[in-house]
């Protein structure tokens, strides 16, 4: 899927944006009352979509039947249990300040101690990201202890499908190794509690790959090196845990490639290594597979198909090799995957004779994606997959193979029939949320990578899959007409159009007959007025807004619309729109159906790129403005004036739901801070007081994109996460 998921600003579709009358010092904006916890707590679940993100690693436990672990690039780690046929999330406890730790760089298990699990966390290695950390568990991830690192990791950087970069030493369960991208090799001798850099014979470069894999081969440890200059070694080993050396006789041509993954066959004493000319998941055009007989030092090339041929239509068959796994029960049986093979489509090859001959499992594969129909991507049949760098073979079942893609995890138990083995995993980066006041669906979501989904049920992946006609990769805008909720519009990145409308609440779609020229290169947020007769579409910083009054058949520029602003419609009055210009701190309003905009409140907080203007449902001109560091503000006169809400000092996103029994005003839901922590809150009294409704085990990192209550179910709330899909909560009964 997307190579960069991080969303630092996302606005709730169908709401508006306002600003602070004054910018208050932090102390002045603090809450005056303590938020109370929900009386009986909340029950939290993920709205089922089914994967929807890059699976970067899968690890079967070698000593426990039916136990496996899975890692993702931005959505944390999971544990598999055969008894429930489901993955359990293990890192949802990571909170707002630890958002960078939701990316899992590597995993490790201890074959001698089945309950031990280790995770190396850190999403980005950039200067603006925090340092990494290692979590260690003695109960399979039910509880954790944490060791903060002084280096950065890169679970969502290039090369994130390599590895594992974390390993329990085969000679000593108290010793762990961690390969980093920029800081060489780290070692722990106290089961991950503390870490120190140790000598390694290669020097990191600026590529950001460093050590790409660590694997045990008997009592020796091998390390792949991704920063080779093209002539030096890229595979190293230690036999005693102290001295490292380049592995002798490395195959010709591999020095210019990156070792992607490795697996050791303990029966034949052979180490299999996959190579590509780039770390992936993108950019690979060449690769190979080699094996090393560790007892003799003999290398043999066992590449199933060499890249570089020509397809039937004349395209270059360029690709690299990615995953590799060996059969713990059958000597010489293994699987490897191609990666970045767009012309012929990626595959998994299987060999039962040590790589002398191979069979492509794609050729006879039969797929059942009935549980996750979006995998058809608007077509009739699913692809075998892409970005296949995570491949695993069940040590207790030779016919149970799984492989990760950019969107799911496929599994087979007979080498022919494949289906997503993804229950419980939700990794979408959600950008927009709508909970319609009527109709079949209680939720419509807009995401990075998988466009828009119409959720008939929250417990099953949408039966219609992704919204098609056209299919979007990433959704940039989603809104419904407040007085005509059957009318919905969306915008996003698509190959055959960037905007669409629906007259049946989002079940089916039709593309706009035309679109502004900049829609293809910079699609942005879109909204519709209360009765669905007017559309306003914005196209990012510096670009004008456009208006359509004929359902997208024609568009005209709105010269007075603040460039790059997010348009928001009044839910009652169809001639009113609002837009907040953060560059000047000015709220603009239209009272002529979006033809012209004039400034209303001025002197508001400016320059804040994380803001949201929301309009209370069922009320005209009742505006709420969330500002990252300046709290929450309200206007009841259509944006002419704003008053600061004193009950919170930081507000990141705000939404509305059904009013509490006996209350006349909708329930408010907020991701923000009433005291010292960022949490999820509900207010039943127009923000006079707040109740915290999430808990320390349900935090999901950065959740500032969107939040929405359900207008038909009091207490139900939907939260957009950046890597854990849509999380929804309901009061515990």
TrEMBL record:
Signal sequence region: none
Gene3D superfamilies linked to this entry: YVTN repeat-like/Quinoprotein amine dehydrogenase
UniProt name for this protein: 1,4-beta-glucanase
Entry similarity comment: Belongs to the glycosyl hydrolase 74 family.
One MF term in the entry's GO annotations: hydrolase activity, acting on glycosyl bonds
CDD domains assigned: Sialidase_non-viral
Domain of life per record: Bacteria
Entries under PROSITE patterns matching the protein: TAT
The entry's keywords: Carbohydrate metabolism, Glycosidase, Hydrolase, Polysaccharide degradation, Signal
UniProt record, GO biological process: polysaccharide catabolic process; xyloglucan metabolic process
Species annotation: Streptomyces coeruleorubidus
The keyword Hydrolase belongs to this UniProt entry's keyword annotation: yes
């Amino acid at each position: 899927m997307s190579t960069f998921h991080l969303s630092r600003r996302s606005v709730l579709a169908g709401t508006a944006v306002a600003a602070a009358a004054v910018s208050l010092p932090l102390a002045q904006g603090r809450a005056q009352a303590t938020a109370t916890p929900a009386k009986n707590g909340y029950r939290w679940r993920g709205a089922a979509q089914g994967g929807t993100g890059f699976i970067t690693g899968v690890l079967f436990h070698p000593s426990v039947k039916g136990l496996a672990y899975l890692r993702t690039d931005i959505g944390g780690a999971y544990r598999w249990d055969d008894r429930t046929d489901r993955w359990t999330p293990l890192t949802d406890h990571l909170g707002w300040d630890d958002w960078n730790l939701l990316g899992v760089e590597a995993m490790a298990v201890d074959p001698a101690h089945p309950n031990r699990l280790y995770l190396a966390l850190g999403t980005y290695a950039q200067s603006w990201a925090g340092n990494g950390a290692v979590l260690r568990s003695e109960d399979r991830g039910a509880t954790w202890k944490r060791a903060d690192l002084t280096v950065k990791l890169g679970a969502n950087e290039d090369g994130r499908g390599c590895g594992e970069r974390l390993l329990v030493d085969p000679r000593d369960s108290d010793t762990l190794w961690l390969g980093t991208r920029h800081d060489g090799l780290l070692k722990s001798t106290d089961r991950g509690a503390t870490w120190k850099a140790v000598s390694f014979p290669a020097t990191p470069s600026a590529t950001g790959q460093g050590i790409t894999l660590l694997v045990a081969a008997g009592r020796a440890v091998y390390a792949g090196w991704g920063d080779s200059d093209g002539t030096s070694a890229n595979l190293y080993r230690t036999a005693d845990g102290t001295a490292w050396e380049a592995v002798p006789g490395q195959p010709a041509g591999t020095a210019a490639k990156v070792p992607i993954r490795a697996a050791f066959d303990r029966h034949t004493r052979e180490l299999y290594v996959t190579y590509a000319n780039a770390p992936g998941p993108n950019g690979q055009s060449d690769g190979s597979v080699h094996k090393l007989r560790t007892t003799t030092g003999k290398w043999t090339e066992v590449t199933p198909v060499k890249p570089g041929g020509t397809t039937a239509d004349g395209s270059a068959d360029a690709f690299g090799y990615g995953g590799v796994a060996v059969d713990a029960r059958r000597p010489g049986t293994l699987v490897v995957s191609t990666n970045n093979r767009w012309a012929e489509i990626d595959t998994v090859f299987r060999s039962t004779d040590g790589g002398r001959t191979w069979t492509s499992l794609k050729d006879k594969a039969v797929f059942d994606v009935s549980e996750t129909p979006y995998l058809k991507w608007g077509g009739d049949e699913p692809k075998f997959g892409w970005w296949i760098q995570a491949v695993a073979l069940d040590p207790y079942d030779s016919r149970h193979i799984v492989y990760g893609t950019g969107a799911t995890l496929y599994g087979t138990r007979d080498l022919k029939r494949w289906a997503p083995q993804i229950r419980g995993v939700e990794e979408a980066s959600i950008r927009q949320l709508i909970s319609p006041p009527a109709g079949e669906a209680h939720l419509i979501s807009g995401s990075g990578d998988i466009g828009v989904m119409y959720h008939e049920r929250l417990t099953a992946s949408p039966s219609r899959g992704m919204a098609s006609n056209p299919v979007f990769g990433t959704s940039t805008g989603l809104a419904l007409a407040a007085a005509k909720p059957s009318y919905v519009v969306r915008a996003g990145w698509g190959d055959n159009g960037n905007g669409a409308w629906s007259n049946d609440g989002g079940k089916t779609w039709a593309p706009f007959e035309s679109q502004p020229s900049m829609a293809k290169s910079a699609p942005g947020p879109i909204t519709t007025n209360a009765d669905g007769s007017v559309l306003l579409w914005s196209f990012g910083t510096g670009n004008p807004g456009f208006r359509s009054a004929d359902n997208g058949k024609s568009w005209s520029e709105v010269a007075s619309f603040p460039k790059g602003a997010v348009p928001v419609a009044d839910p009652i009055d169809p001639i009113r729109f609002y837009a907040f210009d953060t560059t000047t701190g000015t709220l603009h309003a239209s009272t002529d159906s979006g033809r012209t905009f004039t400034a209303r409140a001025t002197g508001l907080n400016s320059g804040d790129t994380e803001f949201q203007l929301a309009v209370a449902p069922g009320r005209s001109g009742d505006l709420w403005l969330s500002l990252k560091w300046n709290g929450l503000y309200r206007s009841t006169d259509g944006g002419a004036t704003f008053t600061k809400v004193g009950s919170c000092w930081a507000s990141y996103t705000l939404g509305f739901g059904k009013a509490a029994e006996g209350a006349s005003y909708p329930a408010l839901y907020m991701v923000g801070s009433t005291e010292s922590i960022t949490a999820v809150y509900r207010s039943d009294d127009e923000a006079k007081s707040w109740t915290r409704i999430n808990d320390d085990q349900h935090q999901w990192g950065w959740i500032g994109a969107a939040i929405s209550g359900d207008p038909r179910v009091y207490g139900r709330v939907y939260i957009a996460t950046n890597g854990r899909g849509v999380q929804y909560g309901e009061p515990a009964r």
